[in-house]
């Protein structure tokens, strides 16, 4: 296991980086900014994918697949879109390598230069809307409700495992509608789907809202988002859903004949969550001993560790454990019985604590005699002795309790860190010293937003949905405002 | 639906291309050689993925994810590997675009040139073995049994939907072992897993074997393969599993301490199947009316079409159909009840025939009176009237029957097209006129293999596994041979 983790209070950022690597979630690769997602980390992502995919299908969406490459000219068709992505994209210029004539090795073959450069997709609106043009003729072809699971590339200069990587995995929904109203409803619906997933499966509480103009997706008319709070008091955008208006339909000339036979431009949405959620999961719940995983997403929900001397004792323990494993699996609970004889129980305890396994059972000689198991829960580190015939019920209860408890703990943490302020002085003090979300009045201008960002590094995370209207004055300019918005420093 | 499909006898290749597009499986995109997999096609691929993934996990494999990009220098480390892939790879040279100074649009920013070019992965052995070096220290770290679902790019000049595309989706297993024996067993096991999947789920019979040296994967010591036969008499390689020896371990310096504490190089395998399987599925079973899908992979297994005049009749039909739909779904059968009033029954019949839905139920006024359904099976186009209380049983039987029947039909077709020949004259005649597999003696040299390929376009598809040894003479050179091999023209 190597030495102990750096603690959160000592260096939160270092704690995170160490934890992701030590818990076998991911590691850096030999390719700048690109990560390797290790099997244990990928197993969590697979569980996330499976649940999200189910929720997308329940809301009427189908999956499809579009090209990895985007011709440069496509990207340029939507003005604000190219503005947003041109500065950080991987460009394919050639399609062949060859042996250097001077024998110095393999080089790019200059005779194999592409006529038009291809961009590795940073997001797929352009290639998808170029395709939708062929799919849509009449209102009968609408809506198109399509999702894609894919890798995308954004050439970030400063990267961190899961939180900001050059390549990441995500899903991107791209829908086409006959009316503005329907598209708006779709964009809002998907924000709610994301919130439901993040809260009920990841156990991470979120605030729903919309982005200000300067924080909007490049090409969107409105961006809905869900915002979470990490343990260091910084916010993390956990998912976004965009109402794109007719911007991409106009850029790619996607029209349909409405019921009256008149040609209209199609209305669009797009929405996505990514492997960034893995970072949010780690940073919300984990502690100085390692990961804390929600039972709903843990690849191993229960681990059983035998404590024994000699094979005879192990056999006696296995006789008790094997049927339990079977019963738990029949109930859909994923169990690992770790009887490796190459490692001591204490080593195993540390390993599963580090890896965030929600429930650990230990069973030794005394438990055998008493007919009990020692049951430990990862979230609170509490242990108790449970009678063998009550252990399944106990585990089932713990699965629910732990899921609820870590959500509640994160919610309490966040609620304590939403501070309402009325002056800019107070704002700066809270942002600097306490962190978390700060609820304040703002005059609605990008100029003020930029000034605040420059002076405090805090940005407007969202204009909360369904927040109460309240007459007030912008804390910076004193101009009138009708609603508080949420500021925070963010990942 | 547009006009009828080109028939297979008229132009097999055109029939295939039209069918893939008209049945909504895939279409060409605006990016040369890259396809769009449409929702209906992707739903079949998802079913393939789900089943394969289950079989991989049952054989002890876990999923992980490795970078899309491979530094040029990595590719060069294994000599025959770079030889195999350098001529057809997409090369990333820059990481930023900018506005041209002369206002002519968006151009590559020459100030953002990469120090080392990155290759879009054509396969991931190099980046993965660079990673495994960090994962393996001792025999306790072995085996590593990892699979990846990913997109890869090979810059093919002549592309065809599913069969040969610049970008395709696949899975690639990459395993690391302490002994040669274990690695060989793994490579062979995965060939068997592939064969089981392709035969039992896709309904496509395959021949298992090994590749000759010239047909082997670039960097492999032995390549196991499964070969299928299409309706035009051409073979299609449906999956390969490679024993890589210690080639990649040596190229990337991956050693482990064995039980005696001695350093040894690790033994490797890799194995993959791709969206090419979609092409094999289409070409094996489909007919001049459209797709024929195996029930085990059909996104819609049963479609129900009401035949009615006016809403009152439709309501009466729905009263009978709705509970049936519910019952079938409870049994895990995917059903679509198509009561769209925008299309006539005849149109719908053609549509589902084209899309290969295994079973179609129709119900009209007379069926209502008689308490029956008209049940049609897609594979034989047979129809019969079935009593309402027997229809579920009938459907369950048909699911099995159709699955078995299409396999048997394909098997009979193939068995009729394995021809044993002893002279080169006969060989050329069979390859030209009859097609299919030709079983013949060959002297084991690449020179003879090349000559045959040049003169007849036929290649050695495989050296069949467990074939009888038989003394013979090479049909071309007359040199001695101990086993017949299988030749065919191939996709």
TrEMBL record, chains A, B:
Record-linked Pfam families: HGTP_anticodon (PF03129), ProRS-C_1 (PF09180), tRNA-synt_2b (PF00587)
Source species, domain of life: Bacteria
GO molecular function: proline-tRNA ligase activity
PROSITE patterns referenced in this protein's UniProt entry, alphabetically: AA_TRNA_LIGASE_II
Protein location: Cytoplasm
Reactions accelerated catalytically: tRNA(Pro) + L-proline + ATP = L-prolyl-tRNA(Pro) + AMP + diphosphate
EC number: 6.1.1.15
Tagged with keyword Ligase: yes
Enzyme class, first EC level, given as a word: ligase
Keywords, ordered alphabetically: Aminoacyl-tRNA synthetase, ATP-binding, Cytoplasm, Ligase, Nucleotide-binding, Protein biosynthesis
Alphabetical list of InterPro entries matching this protein: aa-tRNA-synt_IIb, aa-tRNA-synth_II, aa-tRNA-synth_II/BPL/LPL, Anticodon-bd, Anticodon-bd_dom_sf, Pro-tRNA-ligase_IIa_arc-type, Pro-tRNA_ligase_II_C, Pro-tRNA_synth_II
CDD domains: ProRS_anticodon_zinc (cd00862), ProRS_core_arch_euk (cd00778)
Domain remark in the UniProt entry: Consists of three domains: the N-terminal catalytic domain, the anticodon-binding domain and the C-terminal extension.
Summary of subunit composition and partner proteins: Homodimer.
Protein name: Proline--tRNA ligase
